[in-house]
Amino acid sequence: MFPRRIARRAVIDTYISQLKRVIIEFKRVFGMVPAFRMATLVDPFQEKERFFRHSYKAMEYCLNLGCPLIINTKGTLALEEPWIDIIRQLGKRSLLVYQPTVTLLDEDAKLVELQAPLSSERLEVAKELSRLGIPVVIRLQPLIPYINTETEYMEELLAEFKATGARQVIAEFLRFNKANLLLRFKPLFRKHRIPFWQFIRRSLWETIPRSSHKRPKMKYREQIMLQLKEIATSKGLKFSTCREGFYHLHTAPNCCGLHYLGRYLVRPTLLEYLHLDRYFRLLADKNKVVMSEGRIEMLRYGLRRALKKHEEMIKKVIKDQSLLLSIAPSSALGRSLRLEI
Description:
By secondary structure, the protein is an alpha/beta fold. It contains 15 helices and 10 strands.
C-alpha cells in the first residue's frame, strides 16, 4: 500500500514539474504567462495536501517564475504554514487571486457538504487573506434552484461575502448528467419545506447542446442572474458568471478577477472573437493582453495544438447560431448593437 502511494506521488510530481516548462515556453513567446488555475476538478487544499504538498510545489513554481495563480478551493489550509508564507509572497508580487467556493449557509452546508469545512470557516480564511491585500473573488456555485436562488438567501450570502472584504462574486448554476445526483439535495428541500418535485420536474431543466448534462432553462437562469447582479451591485461587489454566457450582466472586466493583478494574458474566447467588450462597456479592459494567432503558432510542447483546437471549436460554435445563442445568450444582444451602430 505504502509503495503504491509513493509511486502515485512520484507520477503527480512529474506532472507538476511540467508546469515549469510550460511557464518558460509562454514567457519565450509572449513575454508573460497566462494565469494557472489550481484547481478545477480536484481541490488543491484537501487534507491529503498536508502529506503530498503537490499544491505547495506548484505555488513555488508560480512564485519563482512569475506565473499568476488562481486558487479555487473549499479548504482552509491557506492560513497554515507553509502555505500562508508562499501566499503572502505571491500576494506581494500581484500573482494571486484567491477564489473560495461558498454555496450555502452553514446549517445547509452541513447537510450536503459533509467532508468540507463550514462555509463560515472558508469565509474567515477569505477575510484574513483580504486583509493581506490579496484579491478575493468568491465563487457562488452551484446555484441550486429554490434553495440559494431565493432573494433573502442571496442577500444573506452576499452580505457575508462583502464582510470578508471580497471584491467580486462569480455565479454558476448546477449541472448534472444523472438524475439520481439530484437526490443528494433532498435534505435541503426537506429542511426548507419546499416540495422536492419542483426541483426534479423535467420542465425546469434543459439539455446542454452537444452534452449529456442538464441545467435550468435559460429564462430561469437569466432571471436569477439578473437579480443576483443587482444584489451584488447594491453591496459594492463586482459580478460575473461562469460558463453561462450572460456577458451583458457582468460588472467586472474579467470573470475570474484577473484584472485585479494588473496586466494579464488570456487565450481568445467567445468574448474576444465576437468583440463583445466593444458593446458592453464594463467588459473593456486595457490591461488584458489576448494571445494572437501568429504568436500561438510559435508555441511548442503541445501547447500550440491545444490552443488551436480551442480556436477551431470556437469558430465552429460561431458558425452555428442556435448553438451560439445557447452557449452565449449575450451574443444576440451584441449582434443587435452591431446592427444599430
